[in-house]
Amino acid sequence: MSEQNKSEQKSVQEKLTDLSELVGWFQGASFKLEDALDKFKQAESLAEAIEKDLTKLKNDIKVVKKRFDSEE
Amino acid sequence: MDDVLLSVSDFVALTNQTLEYAYPVVQIEGEVAEYKVIQNKWVSFKLKDEGAIVSTFASLFQIRTPLQDGMKVVIVASPRLNNKGFFTLNLKSVRLVGEGSIKKGFELLKAKLEKEGLFAPERKRPLPQVPQHVAVIASTESAGYADFVKIINERWGGMTVDVAHTQVQGVPAPDQMIRAIRYFNGLEELPEVLVIIRGGGSAEDLSTFNDEPLVRAIAESRIPTLVGVGHEIDHTLADMVSDVRAATPTNAAQILVPDRQEIIRSARAQANSVGHLLTQAIETYSRQTKENLAAAFQRTQQKLDDTFERLGILRVAIAQLNPENVLKRGYALLRGEQKSGATLEIETAQHIITTEVQDVRTK
């Protein structure tokens, strides 16, 4: 499975965590200018993916069939 | 019937039959008097108004709200004539009516549950930040439910929301909600949050949420609970015992899920902050490189200056050692053997003189 496919399958929550980690990388000791542009591009595409995912998500609301007006 | 001879027992049975046919269940409003708990199992009290008084009898478990003499209540009961000839009302349910009685009942039960530690902050469980599976207990026909659904759909998506439709006011409401709480708590895969909501209403309508068994069922729920009943100013024992209290159904929706627009804004802001950090890093590196270059240039310049200075000193020293300069000061350079008859060459600043040695003496 390609990295892109893996990334697409992640939940919004996982993508948000990845984005926070990227911000942390930029602020942390492992920051390297050589890798920074790639990381920046990753952060931008994560933000876009999060927006896309969140916009299209719908809730599945179901009224349970069981009746509660008497003991069964 | 005047030609039928009845035994006393038959008369009582016949009267009860007639009562059961004519008034199987009656609803009566009155004031509680002579309230007594017998052997911790039974309850008896009188129901009275200005003109009359009747005895009421019940099992203790049917009393779902604290009762005291003087409280105004509405009872649902079946009238009966007992074998000792006393007329009683066999209680089915009782609810407090009137602001004063409802308030008093609320305070009494609150004190009792507080003593048991049911409202203690350490019992409160946190709700998941972003739940995937939510259970809701509400009347699906209510405006409060419609508000709740509208707000959760606006704010978030991707959740499975199972809704138990129950009454949220009136005598059957507490038991229906208790059954719904037990239903969700009995599921193999538990929902992550149990939300109980109801819109605003009168103190009497909301008193459903002060029902002792309902309050206890909420406290016992294995699923963390979020209760939003009434308006901001309304407080019920159900919301006090819940893990998280919401002021209204709308507020419950706001507490339950994050706002996707806020998260999108935050994600964009984070990506922008990364861009800003990248620009900042490039500027820092560029400034540091310039500073390093400037420092290297300064060090090289300093080295050159030092070398030139040393060279100048050496030049002076060398110049001082130049024989030409010594000749210029009037000295002469003598070449040849120091013996009589030898030829000598004398060099001055201006001339080279050849001469012969006439005499050599030791000093």
Description:
Chain A has 72 residues and is mostly helical. Chain A has one domain. Chain A is 65% helix and 6% strand. Chain A has helices at residues 3-9, 12-27, 33-56; one strand at residues 60-63. The longest helix of chain A has 24 residues, at 33-56. The N and C termini of chain A lie far apart (50 Å). With 363 residues, chain B is an alpha/beta fold. Chain B folds into four domains: 8-97, OB fold (Dihydrolipoamide Acetyltransferase, E2P) (Beta Barrel); 121-258, Rossmann fold (3-Layer(aba) Sandwich), CATH 3.40.50; 261-316; 324-356, no CATH class. In chain B, the strands form three sheets. In chain B, strands 1-2-3-5-4 form a five-stranded mixed barrel. Chain B starts with 7 loop residues before the first helix and ends in a 7-residue tail after the last strand. The model of chain B has no long low-confidence stretch (mean pLDDT 93). Chains A and B meet through α2, α3 and β1 of A and α3, β7, α4 and α9 of B.
Task: State which percent range the strand residues of chain B make up.
Answer: 15-25%
Task: Characterize the largest beta sheet of chain B: strand count, sense, and whether it forms a barrel.
Answer: 5 strands, mixed, barrel
- Summed up, the domain count of chain A is 1
Write the CATH fold name of the largest domain in chain B. Answer: Rossmann fold
Structural class of chain B: alpha/beta
Distance between the terminal alpha carbons of chain A, to the nearest Å? 50 Å
C-alpha-based Rg of chain A, rounded: 20 Å
- Our count of domains of chain B comes out at 4
The two chains with the largest interface, and their residue counts, are: A-B, 36 and 38 residues
Largest sheet of chain A: none
Give the N-terminus to C-terminus distance of chain B in angstroms. 187 Å
Number of helices of chain B: 10
Write down the Rg of chain B. 53 Å
| SS elements, strand count of chain B | 13
